[in-house]
Amino acid sequence: DIRKGINWKWLNSLIRAQRFGRLLSMRLVAGHRDGLTPARYILEDSIHLQVHGRRRILLISPEYSFKGMYPYPVAHPYDGYSMVDLDDVNYGQTPAFAAVRGQSFILEPGDLLYIPRGWWRHEQGLSKEHISLDLRFSPGKRARDRHVAVLPVSRDIEERLART
Predict the structure, then answer these.
(1) Where is the JmjC domain (predicted)?
(2) Contact at 8 Å (CB) between 106 and 50?
């Protein structure tokens, strides 16, 4: 039972202490060994709780959004994802990716990872099966990374141009 495996009282105190906004969604994520979620960004703060199995998450700062991550355009079906295949990078097509740096985390049951809004995440299952919860929050009163503003502004410009 997932509910019993999470210290909800502690989690709620963390959310309040860190000044997150209101909870927007809570998603149950399940997968298998080598299951991959390609690099993408999400414009909400999130907390990733590993419940069962192991999962690797690579985080990349939004400062690389337009300096190597090559995001798909807003109107594209892969909006929010990177054009770069991080498992088989074609540097001829995406040369700026060579400068991109990130931090890799291996999550085990009971681990929690805060993922700031706008940060790129590339996820891979390491266990035969894995389960996690992904909680997403409104902005709240947390300090913002100055590089995050570029993504929403770029998205807004693209959306406005598409309407003209």
Answers:
(1) 1-154
(2) no
